[in-house]
Specification:
- The complex is a heterodimer.
- Chain A has three domains: about 150 residues, Aldehyde Oxidoreductase, domain 4; about 180 residues, Alpha-Beta Complex (Aldehyde Oxidoreductase, domain 3), CATH 3.90.1170.50; about 325 residues, Aldehyde Oxidoreductase, domain 4.
- The termini of chain A are far apart.
- Chain A is built from 18 helices and 36 strands.
- By secondary structure, chain A is α+β, with helices and mostly antiparallel strands.
- Chain B has one domain: 2-Layer Sandwich (Alpha-D-Glucose-1,6-Bisphosphate, Chain A, domain 4).
- Chain B has a seven-stranded antiparallel sheet.
- In chain B, strand 4 and strand 5 form a beta hairpin.
- The longest helix of chain B has 25 residues.
- The chains are: A alpha+beta, B alpha+beta.
- At the A-B interface, loops of A face strand 6, strand 7 and helix 3 of B.
Chain lengths: ~800, ~150
């Protein structure tokens, strides 16, 4: 639900390609946004959670008696209480189930064990601290490679004998699924026949998006009406409404989900978390609204993490650098429950985009997922369903191959790109790439940064003993999930809806099933409607996030909003224009066939002086509709995209390394993105800046690490670092435009491209700087300590 | 987080005196730094509430302590389990009690502790130094109090 504040900048009709300021920023920059914690309801109670100190332990006893003595504490619930309501376990989006509160045992550190409800936030926190839980520690599995050892402890007692999972057979009590795509036999044969082969192991470490606003929820059950209103920090309010109805049995018409302003999501706010369920149950049981807002530690330790992919790749090529085949094996650490929010048919997400921008004739990818004593999650952090891991894998590997072949990495890429005339391009792993011009984009990036001069400078510096590196990443994304024939979550097809209501005075309200968290939809959707209908952009209000008013949609994540809801918005507007044309013909007193849409007006063919504007048509729709035509001017459109979209980009990074301290300084970073048609260049640039900064953080600073007992070693912002203006490099952005042939506007989506594409550029640059020392790969995060140790081990000890 | 420590403390008392001391749970409890409360269950078991500060994790921890003297091995074992503020500590320590020629006794001790929860995660970077100081303080207090008896 959004309330817009006026923007003083006069705009008029501002359609595609106009860099207008974001309409929503007016309220954000003056502190007038309405976030979850700004909402306070009469008689509201507060909830705090009790968390496990152990990563794996039996629960022997939970004693809430001391907590209940604390003034203001109303109730304490545990798994036993939830079981009475049938809610001690809930289904995950990945076909598994997860505990809401620990049921008999805990499976990861900080797992939710009990919920305390109180009149104040402080009393709830005191109550949680007073709950006494007796544990019996059990052996812990932290290393995913040891999860399926014959003697590995059983983590999931509930399914230890169930050897058929949601995605096929399980081969061990800690194994979740095996998934593969492509021909293994043909790929292995092609690899065996290749003149050159490289193999590389690499880890994309566990990270966390850490949105500045943590997750939260207010459950508000009105016992008089039987209606449940849920305020929730969710990126997908409609999906949440349906899931809540299925899980609680409350009819969907009696559930209203409101997603207020959201302070960053990055995929962290897609899943259903135990805190949400407990706040709702608390409201139902206690008959009062219940608010729960996470602490930073709760956010970092229990909510959706990202990555944790352990990958082995083999690539074959000819001696002159033409790739022939690739084979990938990945071990995916999913934590204690499989709660990765992937489309149902794709348990490893869209990881099979791992052939990237290159024309591989043969490929095979296989992924095994395992349980460990860590929090569940898996696809958050600005990642379209494992595309980030896939892109990093192929872009890092192309540099390893270039090193092996002693070829320039830019030349190797240029030699292997899918060529423009090959689109629509069927990839070896089953996708149909819509469009792209990879060579053009890379050449723009190389020229902008002065690549060949930099190579000369690097050679001179290396001769002097100085460390400088250049890294390239020419990634291809796969976003916009997705076409209903292949894409659903829990059976719900991944289309998206848009509604437009044009008012008599020529203003409009538009609604979408998506939910922005900083992406600028209130501006972008208005621009699309302004473009299509010729209305003043300032007279178009955009509303998202209230399931009582917005059309159904699967929400905002995985760079899907513009490819899905953006398409719906354009087609809804065109449907309105069709009706408006009939009204225009009536006003112009000509046949509908004699009217055309020119320069955002309806004009009589051949008589340019005879025209009516959409404002005039809108007024007539309510005051003077043609006889026989339904009055009014509004519509809803559900858009089922025919294909995914495939944005791409070329990023080039230059680093200098301090030999004494190991500090890597990013000297320059050029990012040329191609996201098809650009709706608002300023918003796209902002998205790219934010995504590059997060990619930089992943490459150099961030890791959710655990010790051997399963202690979470990144539970706060002292241990888990966010980049500030101080360390963030200066970004140089640009774009090429290769429209998507199937999207109504030619747009492809951009939100995740920079996070997907940039980590490989950073790592490639650092490895390039150290390649002459024998370094072939370094796992992220590339900390100063890691580089310092490499330098010392390489015998470099001079400053 | 697994922590391992060892050390030696020279006590100005004969081994017999030391043995009498370590088998008295009241006396052992008095050596715990910042002791808030103690409940002696029996001659081998006590529950101690102590003030703990590990970085930003500050408050009281409650420990179940089991004393396991083994005079025939000249060894004293101590097992401790408990915690607070969402953190948990499991510790096993042993001390060889070795009489010296000069009427003194050497406590040759070692301990392994597993720390979980915020004390390990939030206080991780200071935990090692803090825990080491805590253990050293316990043995220093013992040395001092044994000499006084």
């Amino acid at each position: 639900m959004s309330v817009q504040t006026p923007n003083l900048e006069p705009k008029g009709i501002q359609g595609l390609g106009k860099p207008i300021k974001r309409k929503e920023d007016a309220r954000f920059i003056v502190g007038k946004g309405t976030y979850l914690d700004d909402i306070n309801l009469p008689g509201m109670l507060y909830m705090a959670l009790v968390h496990s100190p152990y990563a794996h332990a039996k629960i022997l006893n939970i004693d809430a008696s001391e907590a209940l003595k604390i003034p203001g504490v109303k109730a304490v619930i545990t798994a036993k209480d939830l079981a009475a309501a049938g809610l001690s376990w809930i289904p995950t989006l990945a076909g598994d189930k997860q505990m809401v509160l620990a049921d008999g045992k805990v499976l990861y550190q900080y797992q939710e064990v009990a919920a305390v409800f109180a009149e104040t936030r402080q009393a709830a926190a005191d109550g949680a601290a007073a709950v006494q839980v007796e544990y019996e520690p059990l052996p812990v599995v932290v290393d995913p490679y040891k999860a399926t050892d014959p003697d590995a402890p059983v983590l999931r007692e509930d399914i230890k004998d169930k050897m058929e999972g949601a995605h096929g057979p399980r081969r061990h009590h800690n194994h979740i699924w095996n998934w593969s795509v492509g021909s293994k036999e043909e790929t292995e044969k092609a690899l065996a026949q290749s003149e050159v082969r490289i193999k590389q192991h690499m880890v994309y470490p566990r990270s966390h998006p850490a949105p500045l606003e943590p997750c939260g929820c207010i459950g508000d059950m009105n016992k008089a009406t039987g209606r449940l209103t849920v305020y929730m920090t969710t990126q997908a309010p409609h999906a949440i409404r349906t899931v809540l109805s299925l899980v609680t049995g409350i009819p969907e018409n009696n559930i209203r989900v409101i997603s207020p302003d959201i302070g960053g999501g990055f995929g962290n706010k897609v899943p259903v978390y135990p805190g949400y369920v407990c706040a709702i149950v608390g409201s139902i049981v206690l008959g009062a609204p219940v608010k729960w807002v996470e602490t930073r530690t709760e956010n970092l330790t229990t909510t959706g993490f990202a990555r944790d992919f352990h990958m082995d790749i083999e690539i074959g090529a000819t001696k002159d650098g033409k790739v022939t085949a690739m084979k990938v094996y990945t071990l995916a650490d999913h934590g204690a429950f499989d709660a990765a929010a992937d489309p149902s048919k794709y348990p490893a997400g869209l990881f099979s985009i791992c052939t990237g921008s290159y024309d591989f004739q043969k490929a095979y990818a296989e992924v095994d997922a395992v349980y460990t004593n860590k929090a569940p999650g898996g696809v958050a952090y600005r990642c379209s369903f494992r595309v980030t891991e896939a892109s990093y894998l192929i872009e890092r590997s192309m540099d390893v191959l270039a090193h092996e072949l002693k070829m320039d990495p830019a030349e190797l890429r240029l030699k292997n790109f899918i060529r423009p005339e090959q689109f629509p391009y069927p990839s070896a792993l089953g996708w149909t790439y819509d469009s792209g011009d990879y060579e053009k984009t890379l050449k723009v990036a190389l020229e902008r940064i002065g690549y060949y001069e930099l190579r000369k400078e690097q050679a001179e510096k290396r001769a002097r003993g100085e460390l400088m590196g250049i890294g390239i990443s020419t990634f291809t994304e796969i976003v916009g999930a997705g076409p209903s024939k292949d894409f659903d979550i829990l059976g719900i097809k991944m289309f998206d809806g848009a509604e437009i209501r044009v008012h008599p005075s020529g203003s409009a309200i538009v609604r979408a099933g998506t939910r922005h968290q900083g992406q600028g939809h209130e501006t972008t959707w208005a621009q699309i409607v302004s473009e299509e209908l010729g209305l003043d952009v300032d007279k178009i209000i955009v509303e998202e996030g209230d399931t009582d008013t917005a059309p159904y949609g699967l929400g905002t994540y995985a760079s899907r909003s513009t490819p899905t809801a953006g398409g719906a918005m354009a087609l809804a507007a065109r449907r309105i224009r069709e009706k408006a044309k009939k009204i225009a013909a009536h006003l112009l007193e000509v046949s509908e066939n004699d009217v055309e849409w020119v320069d955002k007006k309806f004009v009589v063919k051949g008589v340019p002086s005879k025209s009516v504007t959409m404002n005039e048509v809108a007024f007539a729709a309510y005051t003077n509709p043609p006889p026989g035509l339904e009055p009014g001017l509004e519509t809803t459109y559900y858009y089922d995209p025919p294909n995914l979209t495939f944005p791409h980009g070329a990023y080039v990074c230059v680093v200098d390394i301090d030999k004494g301290t190991g500090e890597v300084k990013v000297r320059r970073f050029v990012a040329i993105d191609d996201c098809g048609t650009i709706i608002n260049p300023m918003i796209v640039e902002g998205q790219v800046h934010g995504g590059l900064t997060e990619g930089f953080a992943i490459a150099f600073m961030q890791e959710i690490a655990f010790d051997e007992q399963g202690n979470h070693l990144a539970s706060n912002f002292t241990d888990y670092l966010l980049p500030t203006a101080l360390e963030t490099p200066r970004w140089e952005t640009g774009h090429t435009v290769t429209p998507s042939p199937h999207h109504p506007l030619g747009a492809k989506g951009v939100g995740e491209s920079p996070t997907v594409g940039s980590p490989a550029a950073f790592v490639n640059a650092v490895v390039d700087a150290l390649a002459h020392l024998g370094v072939r790969h370094i796992d992220m995060p590339i900390t100063r300590e890691k580089v310092w140790r490499i330098l010392r081990q390489s015998g470099i000890d001079s400053f | 987080m697994k922590l391992e420590y060892s050390g030696q403390e020279k006590v100005q008392a004969e081994p017999e005196k030391v043995w009498r001391f370590v088998q008295d749970p009241h006396k052992v409890a008095s050596c715990l730094p910042d002791l808030k409360a103690v409940e002696i269950k029996d001659e081998k078991n006590l529950v101690a509430t102590v003030g703990v500060a590990v970085g930003p994790v500050r408050g009281t921890f409650k420990f179940n302590i089991e004393l396991d003297p083994r005079p025939e091995e000249n060894k004293m074992l101590v097992r401790l389990r408990g915690g607070g503020l969402g953190s948990a500590v499991d510790l096993t320590a042993s001390a060889n009690i070795i009489g010296q020629d000069d009427q003194t006794t050497l406590l040759d001790w070692s301990g392994v502790a597993n720390v979980s929860g915020p004390a390990a995660t939030v206080g991780g970077r200071v935990l090692d130094a803090q825990a080491k100081r805590l253990i050293e303080t316990v043995f220093a207090n013992m040395g001092q109090k044994m000499a006084e008896v």
